[in-house]
Design goal:
The complex is a heterodimer of chains A (112) and B (114).
Chain A lengths: L3 E4 L2 E5 L4 E7 L4 E9 L5 E8 L4 E4 L2 E6 L4 E6 L8 E9 L5 E3 L3 E6 L1
Parallel strand pairs in A: 2-11
Antiparallel strand pairs in A: 1-3, 3-8, 4-5, 4-9, 6-7, 7-8, 9-10, 9-11
Chain B lengths: L3 E4 L2 E4 L5 E7 L5 E7 L5 E9 L2 E4 L6 E3 L9 E3 L8 E8 L9 E2 L3 E5 L1
Chain lengths: 112, 114
């Protein structure tokens, strides 16, 4: 079964820290992997998308890496700010069926 | 540029009632999807469509129906609402399965069945 898991479920850090969110997937035959941000009561905002042929993508203070062989992706947030507080979701698009499979999310709280 | 638009934003239904959640996209995307998100959980796929006239079941299709008569619209129908269908529903779209632009999501419909 194709599954996506995110650890930890929740994370609280002081402002200014660098942090890493983890995502693992069971089947390495992926098409791409996407990281989303979700604010409370809101929809999903796409942060970064990594194609299966890529190793990482960067946008501002965010860097996402992909290691297909180990079934892992990480989202690195540099110099965290209170405005980064949100739930971060990892989603994998598998080759078969074209369906995006989501992890449960990591709820991040950055304290001033 | 509206993107993906969902209506209504909130709705309360009584058990056994029916309703249609509307989803429209203006990006000429071929692929459209319906997901539900329960508290503390990720999103689960209900139905998806790869083009007008073509739909298929996702992980949790029971209790729902969809249609795709146009590229722009992908309504989700709930028949005989049950408390287990209390959730937040998200519609999404993409150019193709492997689009380099990924998925675009609507802002969601929060449904409560009482």
């Amino acid at each position: 079964k194709q599954e996506v898991t995110q650890i930890p479920a929740a994370l609280s850090v002081p402002e200014g820290e660098n942090l890493v969110l983890n995502c693992s997937f069971t089947d390495s035959a992926i098409y791409n992997l996407q990281w989303f941000r979700q604010d409370p009561g809101k929809g999903l905002t796409s942060l970064l998308l990594i194609q299966s042929s890529q190793r990482e993508q960067t946008s501002g203070r965010l860097n996402a890496s992909l290691d297909k062989s180990s079934g892992r992706s990480t989202l690195y947030i540099a110099a965290s700010q209170p405005g980064d507080s949100a739930t971060y979701l990892c989603a994998v698009l598998y080759n078969q069926g074209g369906k995006l499979i989501f992890g449960q999310g990591t709820e991040l709280s950055v304290k001033p | 540029n509206a993107g993906v638009t969902q209506t209504p934003k909130f709705r309360i239904l009584k058990i056994g009632q029916s309703m249609t959640l509307q989803c429209t996209q203006d990006m000429n995307h071929n692929y459209m999807y319906w997901y539900r998100q329960d508290p503390g959980m990720g999103l689960k796929l209900i139905y998806y469509s790869v083009g007008a006239g073509i739909t298929d079941k996702g992980e949790v299709p029971n209790g729902y129906n969809v249609s795709r008569s146009t590229t722009e619209d992908f309504p989700l129908r709930l028949e005989l609402a049950a408390p287990s269908q209390t959730s937040v529903y998200f519609c999404a779209s993409s150019y193709t399965q492997g689009s380099i632009y990924g998925y675009t999501f609507g802002s969601g419909t929060r449904l409560t069945v009482v």
